[in-house]
Design goal:
It is a single chain. The model has no long low-confidence stretch (mean pLDDT 78). The chain is mostly helical. Helix 1 packs antiparallel against helix 3 and helix 1 (2-60) packs antiparallel against helix 4 (120-138). The protein contains 6 helices and no strands. It has helices at residues 2-60, 64-72, 75-116, 120-138, 141-186, 193-240.
Amino acid sequence: MARNDNAAQRFPQLRAQVARKKELETARAALTAQCAALSVQAQEKKTARQQAERELEQLESGGAMGVLFTLAGGKAARQEAARQELRRAKEEDQKAAWDLAEAQGQLLETERELASLEGCEAAFAQARRERIAALRAAGLPQSEVLEQLEAELAQGKRQIQELTDLGSQCQAAQEQAEHTLHLAERMEFVQTVSSIYTLQDAAQLTIQRQQEVAQRLQELTAGLEAAQARLNALLDDLLSQGICQ
């Protein structure tokens, strides 16, 4: 009994860890993309700041640009405009660097937490199997619910596999139609125009229909996978309950 009680306490903990790991993996992907974009932006702002520094230096050092504005007039105004541009460029450069550092810090923390959850999925799967075996052995009314959920999950798994197989067949048919269309285009000089048009039309129609079927299969598969997720959640809710006889 003590073992069952411990397992009942451990199961929801592991379940929460697995859910947290999935959240962190999603966050890691988003942060990785964000860091990549911010890195590009930071480099652009750094380049703009360096360019503004060079322009002001040329104006103030008596270089070619400074001499040109001296001769043409308005050097003081141009220098002031260059200083303002440099201040703006420095602010944007600093902000871009801070934004990048903040995102990198968040990514590092996410990686650390993910590392602490390493192995939780395998532990949860093992705990799940143990809880299912314990619930079956208990012979309680929940056992009937367990059998029903498992049967629905197994049926859903079979349906998803069938849809996956159909999707593969559709992809193969589409590729064959595309190949036929390519051949028809190359045969224009050795076949009659009407036969080429007929072959092209048939191939294009096949491609269009296969694309429509593939889209529908993807939608059905997504719906089944969502249903499977809900059934798994119900099963885990059931397994989180204590087993008392």
